[in-house]
Amino acid sequence: MQVTILAVGTRGDVQPLVALAKGLHGAGHTVCVATTHEFETPVREQGLSFFALSGSPSRMMQDAGLLAAMGGNRNPVTLVRGILDAMEPLFEQGVAEAWTACQGADAVIVSMLGFYAGCHVAEKLGIPCIEGCVLPARPTRAFSSPLLGVNLHLGGNANRLSHVILLQFAWLLLQPVTNRARRAVLGLHPLSFRALFREFEREQQPVLHGYSPLVLPKPSDWHAWHHVTGYWFLDHSPSWQPPGDLVDFLEAGPPPVCVGFGSMTGRDPERVTEAVLAALKRTGQRGLLLTGWGGIDASGLSGDVFKLDSAPHDWLFPHMAAVVHHGGSGTTAAGLRAGVPSILVPFGGDQFLWGQCVKTLGVGPEPIPRQQLTAEKLAYAIRVAVEHGPIRARASALGERIRAEDGVRNAVQIIERYLAHPRVE
User: Would you say domain 2-231+405-420 falls under CATH 3.40.50.1260?
Assistant: First the structure.
């Protein structure tokens, strides 16, 4: 079987799909990962075929100020509109590139952003389109839409309505450019306002959710073809070695508290850094600042704080006393897998949902929304995470159970069963 994976998004969207691609390849399938140039190296390191897509969702979001906006504006309408405005100039080109990438494929697997191009290409080619999502992608009464950017307890029907409204709002904004691309690139008829998801669900094509049911169980009102498989972890390359100064720092004292906010810059990274350093000082904890491209400023550090541009989370987090992060799906997964307490500082989007999951599971303290972050609140959360025995015990036990799961294998088996018998029994 030949599969093309359209992995469009930031690292948190793409890396799990590379893990899934590796699993499919290991099961004997031919896999091509179509994604942007920034992810070419991890794709090729797994021995997978790579197809280059134009643009960079991470860069587009950064240039459009959307990542900064998530630090100070949780309005989901503004964020969705901004993302789609950033995507629109490249949409027709993206559909054309997806069409080329999928030639000869027996199926296409798409990320959430990749769905808006991949489903039309799959329709034209007459092949299945399978969604691979790292957050809940279908309406449910169990919880409100993670795209709201705030954790609301609306109640059954209102929860479901929040999902429907945001999905339809996104489709309403994309409908004109989508239909132009369908006609110009694929020669397909335009879709009505309600047609996109209705037709997709009618075909009962699998929707795979790459997170653990131990963290967020499958809602009872989802269909049989909506699956929660377990996380899709991509471990670091065997060729990667930790820098010598990092090893020296870790060996020089007790496990530090890791702090990093991934691609979230916020509007005032200096204030965030000041609060983090003050919190570490108040608690007497050693700290490791992961700067990444999220823009944490960490100049003038004491000897008890180490600055690191990046490191594989699967290697780094088990060496920590606790991890403080923004609550992205991938970082949350890595923290839980490591079996250490997590402290979430949500900036927006689904980060609030994962923060609530961490709190409900008892593996970390109450999340601190980015707008409410202070040295005092973070210091209290660090003390709770590091010193509270039951939290540490629950985090360790959950990590062990998550490490025993095989989400990639589960997803591969679902894909193979569907392609052999493309209807739910």
Answer: no
